[in-house]
Amino acid sequence: MDTLLVTHEDCLQHCPGPGHPERPQRLRAVLDAVRDLPGLIEFPAPLAAEEQVLRVHAAEYLDMLRFAEPKEGLAQLDPDTFMSPGSLDAALRAAGAGCEAIELVLAGKFGNAFCATRPPGHHAESATAMGFCLLNHVAIGAAHALSLAEINHVAIVDFDVHHGNGTQAIFRSDPSVTYLSTHQQALYPWTGHADDQGHGNLHNVPLPADTGSDAFKAAFESRIEPALSAADPDLILVSAGFDAHKDDPLAGLNLEAEDYAWITEQLCRSADALCGGKVVSILEGGYGLDGLALSARAHVETLIRYARQRI
Questions:
Q1: Which of 95, 258, 275, 285 has the highest Cβ tally under 10 A?
Q2: Is residue 153 a contact partner of residue 161, using CB atoms and an 8 Å limit?
Q3: pTM to 2 decimals?
Q4: Catalytic residue at 153?
Q5: Which of 122, 123, 144, 153 is catalytic?
Q6: CB-facing half-sphere around the CA of 310: CA atoms within 13 A
Q7: Per-residue pLDDT tens over the stretch 59-111
Q8: Does the CA dihedral 176-158-263-253 come out positive or negative?
Q9: Are β-strands 81-83 and 75-78 bridged in parallel, bridged antiparallel, or unpaired?
Q10: Close Cβ partners of 236 (under 8 Å, ≥ 6 residues apart)
Q11: Under a CB-based contact definition with an 8 Å cutoff, are residues 284 and 136 in contact?
């Protein structure tokens, strides 16, 4: 089977301003790195339907985003988060990409999927934009999956260097979603403490600055993998941030591109054992273009290798 790539040119229209690290070049770097891979089939991302968005976000919040989007220039929503003309469509394409990929993977048309979209989403809360994020795409995808008859439990694995506070807040009291996160401790947004377990469905693994490959792998194997196995999900969603790479300018972990192949392999093995290989990955952070491109390619190459093992 093939791996699905879902993306859209609209995601390049979100421009938060000169010098902002969440720039359109991020997506161009990822697409340039993966589009030539054999076994990858590209589909255009649809706009998320309002019904899909409102499973996660307040209607008043969606209205606010519509009102705030400028016809020219920039609108500032928080110290780091801006909207330009086209920002809302970019976010709706990113959310729609996740929902589309989930449906196609669950239908057995693809072995797994990667959504190459922006802006990122995992900091967005139900009624709050923050951390470069407008809509929480992985949360919208999880809620969409749970609306389908065959899905009773979703696991979200978030390996972005920043904790996904928005995803955690949205699902804190929802036993149908398990949230598992590795992230750098004492870093924005300063959430995701190890003792924060929600209602038993949150598994936070904060890592000290300068953590490298060996320590990361040990933490992943001892903390994330057992919790993921115990959750026994019907689908694994991935918040795929590549900013734990050693060259990322916004953080201080020391992973290499090869480590993302290893992480992806562990997740695909777990998915094979737990849910028939059903993995949908959604791009989050990663702000050093070279490290982002190399890491995303390693991630997608591994997805393709596992998809091709299925008949």
A1: 95
A2: no
A3: 0.98
A4: no
A5: 123
A6: 22
A7: 999 999 999 999 999 999 999 999 999 999 999 999 999 999 999 999 999 99
A8: negative
A9: antiparallel
A10: 154, 155, 156, 157, 228, 267, 270, 271, 274, 275, 278, 279, 280
A11: no
* Structure-token pair, residue 164: 């996904």
- Look up residue 48 and give its amino acid: A
E strands, the chain, are 3-7, 40-44, 75-78, 81-83, 112-115, 154-158, 177-184, 202-207, 235-240, 279-283
Q: Which domains does the chain have, with CATH numbers?
A: 3-307 (3.40.800.20)
Report the SS3 class of residue 284.
coil
Which token pair is 264? 């992806």
215: left (phi over 0), alpha (psi -120 to 50) or beta: alpha
Q: Are 100 and 144 in contact (CB under 8 A)?
A: no
Determine contact, residues 299/242, Cβ cutoff 8 Å. Answer: yes
Taking the C-alpha atoms of residue 19 and residue 74, their distance in angstroms, rounded to an integer, is 13
